[in-house]
Design goal:
about 35% helix; alpha/beta; 10 helices; four-stranded parallel beta sheet; about 300 residues; binds N-carbamoyl-L-aspartate
Length: about 300
């Protein structure tokens, strides 16, 4: 599970059906046959939700978990990443890897380094496929578990589009729905979409490449069914030390009590979390908020993914 780029609707459908089953019998999965399996969480970068939801998912499936801690590992003695991963593979049946260097996971795959299933838990500013699946599942759930009902949605991505791997993977996954319309509202020019991403959107959704990025001064909040917001990915900016921590977000694009009034009554506001200033917590109790549901669905989706890789 490295990327959403080549996933088929059958792949996604299988995962979603399994996730819904997991959800319905969440406290009753111990007989699923994973009780002697071990998942290895190999996180070389901070995480709360991804690592803990994988851990929770594995326990709920009756399996066990080993958490690698880079700060007290032999990395401190100069061990290479490859040697570390070769070591970890002896201790479990499935590994989740998160690493700030986008290429590590590709090197591992291209060189056949490991002989156990690998899940990409986020590779630098690259991709985050399991997050994209739980995001799409959250939309699909809201639309009565029907792919047909979501195929014409209009989605606005707001935030650090350049370096948000969750945005990249969700947009990649949306290639399955060519009539979904995608727009982008970056925080500023430095966080805008890459040309490659714009070309992909234009090709997959048959949109004019010049109309994908919308104007910050002229946002049509009413138009969209889904607002997918991300934080400024400060740890990805090599010049971060020189900029102001607050990054002075334009109040025009912050999701707050003022802007939310202009959205559709049944719009969805999504965020992979953690959030900073881009969504004000004053909107948290609005029924259009879905980021808490996303977290919950993360466990079911990861249960379904682990199950499909180990069974
Ligand atoms: C995201 C990530 O790690 O890419 N978080 C997550 O997995 N839910 C988003 C982020 O860090 O901004």
């Amino acid at each position: 599970m490295i990327s959403t780029k080549n996933m088929t609707i059958e792949n996604v459908n299988n995962i979603f059906i399994n996730a819904s089953n997991m959800k319905n019998k969440i406290n009753n999965n111990n007989d699923i046959g994973l009780n002697n399996k071990i998942l290895i969480n190999a996180f070389f970068e901070p995480s709360t939700r991804t690592s803990l939801s994988f851990e929770s998912a594995m326990y709920r499936l009756g399996g066990k978990v080993i958490n690698f801690n880079k700060d007290i590992s032999s990395l401190k003695k100069g061990e290479s990443i490859n040697d570390t991963l070769k070591t970890l593979e002896n201790y479990g049946d499935l590994i989740v890897i998160r690493h700030p260097d986008k290429n590590v996971i590709h090197d591992v795959i291209d060189n056949n380094l490991l002989n156990i299933p690998i899940i990409n838990g986020g590779n630098g500013a690259g991709e985050h496929p399991t997050q994209a699946l739980l995001d799409l599942y959250t939309i699909y759930e809201k639309y009565d578990y029907s792919f047909d009902n979501i195929k014409k949605l209009k989605i606005l991505f707001i935030g650090d589009i350049l370096d948000s791997r969750t945005v990249h993977s969700l947009i990649d996954l949306l290639h399955l729905f060519p009539s979904i319309e995608i727009n982008i509202l970056p925080f500023n020019d430095e966080t805008s979409a890459s040309n490659e991403l714009l070309k992909n959107i234009s090709k997959n959704h048959n949109q004019n490449i010049n109309d994908i990025i919308i104007n910050r001064r002229n946002i049509n909040w009413k138009k969209y069914d889904v607002f997918y917001v991300t934080r400024y990915q400060k740890e990805r900016k090599f010049f971060y030390d020189q900029i102001d921590d607050n990054n002075n977000l334009d109040s025009n694009i912050i999701i707050n009590n003022y802007n939310i009034q202009n959205m559709k009554k049944d719009a969805m506001i999504m965020h992979p979390l953690p959030r900073n200033e881009e969504i004000n917590s004053e909107v948290d109790n609005d029924e259009r908020v879905y980021y808490f549901k996303q977290m919950k669905n993360g466990v079911y989706i990861r249960m379904a993914i682990i199950y499909s890789l180990l069974k």
